[in-house]
Amino acid sequence: MNMSLLIFNGSPRGEKSNSDIIISWFVEGFETPSTMYLKKVKQHESFIEKARSFDQLLFVFPLYVDGMPAQVKVFFEKMGENKEIFKDKKVSFIIHSGFSEAIHSKNLEKYLMRFVEIMEMKNYGVFIIPGSEGFRIMPPRMTAKKARKVANIGRLYQMDKPFHKEDQAALEGPLVQNKTKVAWFKVMKKLGLTNFYWNQQLKKNNAFEKRFDAPYR
């Protein structure tokens, strides 16, 4: 049974986001997926109206300070004002972050589950993907395992079948890292490898030499 899917990308980066990469994995096999970018706040009203004609909704967004990006919260509030449109629709959420542990996303997971109850929607699942920062620049072989898990969930979502719990668990990983991985991270940090992406951005913007400046101290 194929059902129509409307996707909401909640990343401030929009079309150039890690969220868009994750969405591309999820929609493998979907015939006509439609993606709305919530950073286009002035179009939220039209997004609400568009949702009327879809059976399934998917929200994908990064974790921002243990919560959601502002434009996602604004859209949720707009949804609350139009509850009749969303009642009984099936919804799923993917939260991703640069953190290596799932624990950072757990409070938001609880919020989303409660939000679905209030909206009287059908909760297909909340999926947490840590370690997502860099998906945009990683070669496909480095993200292949995660891509397969997300694609599996998307395929079952399309067919209106329950997702495999092992896929959800594999994406989420450990709640917190074990001592061995913490020790390994400390070694990586000393080697400067943990700051590779940020140093790259600093150099790109001619700010690398100023990275330790404290003008307001």
Amount of beta strand = 5-15%
As for the CATH topology of the largest domain, it is: Rossmann fold
Q: What is the radius of gyration computed over CA atoms, rounded to a whole number of angstroms?
A: 19 Å
Main β-sheet, in a few words? 5 strands, parallel
Question: What is the molecular shape?
Answer: globular
Q: What letter string, H or E per element, gives the SSE order?
A: EHEHEHHEHEHHHH
Q: Give the CATH superfamily of the largest domain.
A: Flavodoxin domain
Number of strands: 5
| CATH architecture heading of the largest domain | 3-Layer(aba) Sandwich
- Which structural class do you get from the secondary structure elements? alpha/beta
Distance between the termini: 61 Å
Number of separate domains: 2
**Helicity, in percent?**
40-55%
Low-confidence regions: none
Average pLDDT score: 90
Q: Supply the CATH class of the largest domain.
A: Alpha Beta
How many DSSP helices? 9
- Biggest sheet, strands in spatial order? 2-1-3-4-5
Report on this model:
This protein is of the alpha/beta class. The protein folds into two domains: 5-175, Flavodoxin domain (Rossmann fold); 178-217, no CATH class. The protein contains nine helices and five strands; from the N terminus they run E-H-E-H-E-H-H-E-H-E-H-H-H-H. It is globular. The protein starts with a strand and ends in a 13-residue tail after the last helix.
